[in-house]
Design a protein that fits this description.
This protein is an alpha+beta fold. The strands form four sheets. It has an eight-stranded mixed sheet, with helices on both faces. Strands 1-2-3-5-4 form a five-stranded mixed barrel. Helix 8 packs across helix 10 and helix 11 packs across helix 13. The structure holds one RNA strand.
Length: about 500
RNA sequence: GGGCCGUUAGCUCAGUUGGCAGAGCAGCUGACUCUUAAUCAGUAGGUCCGGGGUUCGAAUCCCUGACGGCCCA
């Protein structure tokens, strides 16, 4: 970028960098540290001033200069590395005139290496009495204000590097995110699941009801879709005999952005042969408890002002019953007839389309009146077959499927079901979806002939599930927006 | 896509009824040998988001566009 938005501040720093260039290697890469700052605090937390003087511990640290307090012939500075930070103490008489002067010319934000003795100041703060200091990387742009930090959300998302420098909280969110994913992966591996990677670019997008991104492969001269879900590939693998399989990876959906939606988001998706959706609900409860315990150290936590507890058995309720529970004025019979159910939907201001059957209307009523009130972990089961084109029908009631979604904090986190493994039924449902697509529903599914062929070889009785990792991270980090748990959320171009 | 709110110095923010563009931090100059948002004195720094309009005069009022946030679809 050669753009000249150089203001006075940047110009001054460029001038300093010129001076550094003139006197040797401006961007050295031969400084090696002996300690992380957090390690020093850990190791010497218990030692008092006298102890440390007699121990004479030498240490080299490196990191970014976060503050500078020059007071004549002695100065304090803050050095921050990836682990934490430590105070530097610099004396002219210790460093020498030249080195002390060059310290004074450093700017907040510069990356430095410091070598010295661990000690405590008169006020008791564990610090490093610096014997030598080197500039490792000159910073040309001034950091945000030390007290208020960086709060402009737009800059925080666009320039996440500045956000990470200034806001320790956000670094903690992404360390937790990593711990969550690691914990989930361990849990899956421990239970005999094989981790795989299936196509992100698919000739036929499937496995979910969503609009895909379209791209183009030049050599093959064909249109490809970024996947909206890995589902149909993972189930092909179950056909192939990989009886327990999972994938943690990105899905892409060409839809609006909100505090709960980013066009690319991360899902755990897994399948288990010879298991049903009840098994998966049990499995999910165990997973969530283990992850919370590993990452938070406890099973209860706060989310946006709500106390949430993973310890008790997660509540399980059918979709229809959930509607009735939260709407005392609705009677069960009203939800059974399309016309009466439509009346209820209209009462809640829901806009119905002609193509909506009873199942879709029930789902709309559920979403409008129940979803956001499911704060404690709740499995909602028995989703209508109409809105579950890949799920197995219930043996006793063909109107619904053996499917569940898990809601926590008023949000859907998990979607799982016993898989539809009847190739003929699946073909029929694909035909219906394809007809909807021809009729103008651009979220409807494509007919995937190869997937039908796979089913014709025989998919064992199987259950599968998808867990929205971003939303789970939001929950466990008390983040209000999905953008706070995605390092580089999707934004419009700046200019 | 719709509604509401926001955009002023590197950052955090003031800006009265439409009347000279402001503060703190950061920067620069100087003082200061144990500071904790160090302190003190001085100093520099602006496309008031862009475009158009009203007006003697617009950061401020009107129109329009861009970007962001929240809510809704």
């Amino acid at each position: 970028m050669t753009e000249q938005d150089d203001n006075q501040l940047i110009a001054q720093r460029r001038e300093k960098l010129q001076g550094v260039r003139a006197s040797g290697i401006a961007f050295p890469n031969d400084f090696r540290r002996t300690h992380l700052t957090a390690g020093i605090h850990e190791q010497y937390a218990e030692h008092d001033k006298e102890d440390l003087e007699s121990m004479a511990v030498e240490a080299s640290v490196c990191g970014r200069l976060m503050f500078k307090r020059v007071q004549g012939k002695v100065s304090f500075a803050g050095l921050k590395d990836g682990s934490g930070s430590i105070q530097l103490f610099l004396q002219r008489d210790n460093l020498g005139d030249e080195a002390y002067a060059s310290f004074k010319s450093l700017d907040i934000g510069d990356v430095v290496g410091a070598e010295g003795m661990v000690f405590r100041t008169n006020r008791g703060e564990l610090s490093l009495r610096v014997n030598s200091l080197r500039l490792l990387t000159k910073s040309l742009r001034s950091l945000p204000e030390k007290w208020h930090g960086l709060s402009d959300t737009e800059i925080r998302y666009r320039q996440r590097y500045v956000d990470l420098i200034m806001n320790d909280d956000i670094g903690e969110v992404f360390r937790k995110r990593s711990a969550i994913v690691e914990s989930i992966r361990r849990f899956m591996l421990k239970h005999g699941y094989l981790e795989v990677e299936t196509p992100m670019m698919q000739p036929i997008p499937g496995g979910a009801v969503a609009r895909p991104f379209i791209t183009y492969h030049n050599a093959l001269d064909m249109q490809l879709y970024l996947r909206i879900a890995p589902e149909l590939y993972l189930k092909r693998l179950v056909v192939g005999g990989i009886e327990r399989v999972f994938e943690i990876n990105r899905n892409f959906r060409n839809e609006g952005l909100s505090t709960r939606h980013n066009p690319e988001f991360t899902m755990l998706e897994f399948y288990a042969a010879y298991a049903d959706y009840n098994d998966l609900m049990d499995f999910t409860e165990r997973m969530f408890r283990e992850v919370a315990d590993n990452v938070l150290g406890e099973l209860s936590f706060q989310y946006q002002g709500h106390d949430i507890d993973f310890a008790p058995s997660f509540h399980r309720v059918s979709l229809k019953q959930a509607i009735l529970d939260h709407n005392p004025d609705i009677e069960a019979a009203q939800l059974e007839e399309p016309a009466r159910a439509a009346d209820i939907a209209l009462r809640f201001g829901i806009q119905l389309k002609d193509s909506y059957g009873l199942g879709k209307i029930q789902l709309e009523i559920f979403e409008a009146t129940v979803e956001e009130r499911l704060i404690q972990p709740t499995f909602v089961t028995q989703f209508p077959a109409e809105v579950s084109p890949l799920a197995r029908r219930n043996d006793d009631d063909a109107f619904v499927t053996d499917r569940f979604e898990l809601f926590v904090g008023g949000r859907e986190i998990v979607n799982g079901f016993s898989e539809l493994n009847d190739a003929e039924d699946q073909a029929e449902r694909f035909r219906q979806q394809a007809a909807d697509k021809d009729a103008g529903d651009d979220e409807a599914m494509h007919y995937d002939a190869d997937y039908i062929r796979a089913l014709e070889y025989g998919l064992p009785p199987t259950a599968g599930e998808g867990i929205g990792i971003d939303r789970l991270v939001m929950l466990l980090t008390d983040s209000a927006s999905i953008r706070d748990v995605i390092l580089f959320p999707q934004m419009r171009p700046e200019n």
